[in-house]
């Protein structure tokens, strides 16, 4: 069993069966984003009176991304699969007018070393249907992997475009690839030349082009496109 603040995973004794229960927030949206995208196959719901309490799945290994990274670097194929899985989950949530605004390493669960999904509602918020912004009316804990737009917020109420999330995801992927924590390195967040130098070790690979699109200074031009 492991139990960060945002979720709990329990293995049924002497089986490959696990339960995932997310502690609070829009849990139904997260569960659906895992099951209906087929990121994780063979998912079963444990519900009570139409409220999903947890999901049940089978696996040989279940770890958080922070544990995986402590054990060593991810392979290039794992990075590519993580980009694919997380982008699919994020796209599903956006269709349902929800978006993350940042991430911590413990938010990402890794199944059998090659399946990745986000299991935290703390940094999940509604997208306003009129202007596609995320609104903040009370203080928030800013996630470890964030965006310049979120970092620069100093007063309430406040808003950021939902595509600020793409920068946050890019910061997470960059860290997994290079061990560079972008906010410790940038004198001014989003400076093109600095970001270009961070990406040099992975020049012209598939993750390189994906990250280039995540880190565009104009958030309206950012996209999650992996090709």
Report on the architecture of this protein:
This protein is of the alpha+beta class and 227 residues long. The protein has one domain: Orthogonal Bundle (Transferase(Phosphotransferase), domain 1). The protein is 33% helix and 22% strand. The chain has helices at 27-35, 65-71, 76-95, 148-151, 164-178, 182-185, 192-199, 206-214, and strands at 7-11, 17-22, 44-48, 51-58, 62-64, 98-100, 108-111, 115-118, 124-126, 133-136, 158-161. A hairpin with a 2-residue loop joins strand 3 (44-48) and strand 4.
Concise synopsis of the structure shown:
This protein is α+β, with helices and mostly antiparallel strands. The chain contains eight helices and eleven strands. A four-stranded antiparallel β-sheet has the order 1-2-4-3, covered by helices on one side.
| Helix/strand structural class | alpha+beta
- What would you call the shape? globular
Q: What string gives the helices and strands in order?
A: EEHEEEHHEEEEEHEHHHH
The CATH superfamily is identified as Transferase(Phosphotransferase) domain 1
Q: Identify the CATH class.
A: Mainly Alpha
CATH level 3 topology: Transferase(Phosphotransferase), domain 1
Which residue ranges are poorly predicted, with pLDDT under 50 across at least 5 consecutive positions? none
Radius of gyration over C-alpha positions, nearest whole angstrom? 17 Å
Strand order of the largest sheet: 1-2-4-3
Most strands sheet: 4 strands, antiparallel
Name the helicity range: 25-40%
Distance between the termini: 37 Å
Task: Determine the number of helices (DSSP H or I, runs of at least 4 residues).
Answer: 8
State the total count of DSSP E strands.
11
The averaged pLDDT comes out at 88
CATH architecture: Orthogonal Bundle
Strand content: 15-25%
How many domains, in number, for the residues? 1
């Amino acid at each position: 069993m492991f139990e960060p603040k945002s979720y709990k995973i329990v293995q049924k004794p002497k089986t490959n069966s696990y339960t995932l229960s997310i502690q609070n927030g829009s849990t139904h949206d997260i569960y659906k984003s895992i099951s209906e995208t087929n990121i994780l196959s063979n998912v079963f719901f444990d519900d009570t009176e139409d409220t999903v309490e947890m999901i049940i799945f089978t696996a040989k290994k279940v770890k958080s991304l922070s544990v995986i990274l402590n054990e060593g670097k991810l392979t290039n194929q794992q990075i590519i699969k993580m980009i694919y899985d997380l982008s699919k989950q994020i796209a599903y949530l956006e269709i349902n007018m929800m978006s993350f605004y940042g991430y911590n390493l413990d938010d990402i669960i890794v199944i059998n070393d090659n399946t990745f999904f986000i299991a935290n509602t703390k940094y999940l918020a509604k997208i306003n249907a009129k202007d596609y912004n995320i609104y903040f009316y009370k203080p928030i804990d800013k996630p470890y992997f964030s965006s310049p737009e979120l970092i620069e917020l100093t007063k309430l109420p406040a808003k950021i475009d939902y595509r600020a999330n793409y920068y946050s995801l890019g910061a997470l992927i960059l860290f997994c690839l290079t061990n560079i924590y972008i906010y410790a390195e940038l004198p001014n967040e989003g400076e093109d030349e600095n970001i270009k130098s961070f990406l040099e070790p992975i020049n012209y690979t598939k993750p390189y082009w994906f990250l280039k699109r995540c880190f565009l200074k104009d958030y309206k031009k950012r996209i999650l496109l992996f090709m």
